[in-house]
Design goal:
252 residues, single chain, 44% helix, alpha+beta
Length: 252
């Protein structure tokens, strides 16, 4: 490729699916071409700006509707900041993630630097089962909690345990960096493994392991297309609430 693929300008013009397809085709090889890697990162940053706007719109709409943000515990402890923008340490945290896990997808680093931590678990006044609908949660910096450094310790422990399993088990599977409770734990029910990102991964857009394994951007588009609540609950009011929340959110 001797000329610029113009990924950013094409992405902004609406050729998002084609741009992501081309970036996926490059895989981790894109890191070997600094000029292409820079252009790919600009697309990821644009994606993150759009995602943050969607998050801010969802939080505002839920707040206006009387949504009660709370923890996934028996007490339903109130959550006062469902979206915590990146702190002044976000860039350093993204660098730490890259150093610690050998390779981290560009979209993940863009999320850390430009979106922040999101916790949409809660109860909607017109939809009692909203906590059962797998509300969006992504916490990569840990800034919603008093001591964000503890998240690094947690990641270190998970990584060390996985590496130990690599040495002792024939099939230990891939490492998944945990960033959210699974669907059942979000509704304070016994569930499975946390959602997270498959690492190491030097691709532009990585794999998100949730109810299924899909690209991170694919997961986000599914979530935003459902107003932040991608799992069906069977409630009569569910679809009306979701439709209102999802209206005019930006595709990524």
């Amino acid at each position: 490729m001797n000329s610029s693929p113009q990924w950013l300008s094409r992405y902004r013009r609406g050729q998002r699916e084609q741009v992501w397809h081309e970036l996926h085709q490059w895989g981790s090889r894109i890191r070997l071409r600094p000029e292409l890697a820079e252009e790919a990162q600009s697309v990821c940053d644009e994606m993150a700006h759009r995602a943050r706007q969607n998050v801010e719109v969802l939080v505002a709409r839920l707040t206006a509707a009387g949504y009660r943000f709370h923890e996934n515990d028996d007490e339903e402890t109130p959550v006062t900041r469902p979206h915590v923008p990146p702190t002044t340490q976000a860039d350093a945290h993204a660098d730490w993630l890259r150093d610690r896990f050998e390779a981290v997808p560009m979209t993940v680093c863009s999320w850390v630097r430009l979106v922040g931590d999101v916790w949409l678990v809660g109860t909607h006044p017109e939809w009692a089962a909203s906590a059962s609908a797998d509300p969006l949660v992504i916490e990569l910096e840990g800034s919603r909690h008093p001591d964000g450094s503890s998240l690094r310790e947690y990641y270190d422990e998970e990584w060390a345990q996985w590496q130990e399993e690599q040495d002792t088990e024939e099939e230990s599977g891939v490492f998944v960096l945990p960033v959210a409770p699974d669907r059942l734990h979000k509704e304070n029910t016994s569930g499975g493994e946390p959602y997270g990102f498959v690492l190491p991964d030097g691709a532009t857009d990585g794999l998100f392991a949730g109810e299924t394994i899909t690209s991170f951007v694919g997961y986000l588009n599914h979530v935003f297309g459902s107003g932040g609540f991608p799992w069906p609950t069977g409630s009569e009011s569910e679809w009306q609430v979701k439709s209102g929340l999802a209206e005019d959110l930006l595709p990524l």
